[in-house]
Design a protein that fits this description.
alpha/beta; 6-stranded parallel beta sheet; globular
């Protein structure tokens, strides 16, 4: 929908501001609406995953780094693994990574990030710009650590969680699976799975 004067404007048939079926390529892919070349056939998660899998089958995929939702990154990662492709670790030149840490495949470590001694980052994680992962932290698979977040020593973040920008997780805290920790939060005790 569209917001006008603080209210949701849905329009005729609830289609206001729905650009997904705007045709951008008359000779493009067939859309589920029956037209060809709709925006949705290029930008929806489903279409991106379909094209990704086609490229892998053709052997024409050189590299992909999926920045997006945790669920979409996880799905693309699993498609790649299913086809025997091994996603690489991407490390920015200004990131500092201890020789004693372990980083899983498909993980992105952004500019000026720090991953200290004996930390473990799982598969397909994002450790974003300026994030600090202190000693002995364990990060599960498909976790997003947002810019400038700090995990103090011995923190455990379970699979599929998101740590917001500038959040601080104090020493020894465990964050459950699929949690969302808000930007700027200071977490002082354990968080149960699926908590936002």
């Amino acid at each position: 929908g569209l917001v006008i004067d603080g209210k949701i404007y849905r329009g005729f048939n609830h289609a206001a501001a729905d650009v997904g079926h705007t045709v951008i390529d008359l000779n493009g892919r067939k859309c589920r609406c029956g037209n060809f070349g709709c925006v949705e056939t290029y930008s929806s998660y489903e279409s991106i995953a379909q094209r990704f899998e086609e490229k892998i089958k053709q052997g024409s995929l050189d590299f992909i780094c999926a920045i997006g939702t945790i669920s979409s990154r996880k799905a693309l990662y699993n498609i790649a693994k299913k086809h025997g492709w091994s996603p690489q670790i991407v490390r920015h030149a200004t990131a500092t990574i201890s020789e004693s840490c372990k980083v899983g495949s498909g993980t992105y470590i952004g500019p000026k990030s720090v991953v200290n001694a004996h930390a473990i980052a799982g598969q397909n994680c994002i450790i974003n710009t300026g994030a600090i992962i202190e000693h002995d932290c364990i990060i599960g698979d498909h976790v997003n650590i947002s810019p400038s977040a700090t995990l103090c020593g011995n923190v455990k973040i379970l699979n599929g969680s998101l740590i917001g920008a500038g959040a601080t997780i104090l020493p020894g805290v465990e964050i459950g699976t699929q949690c969302i920790i808000g930007a700027g939060a200071v977490v002082t005790s354990n968080i149960k799975s699926s908590t936002t």
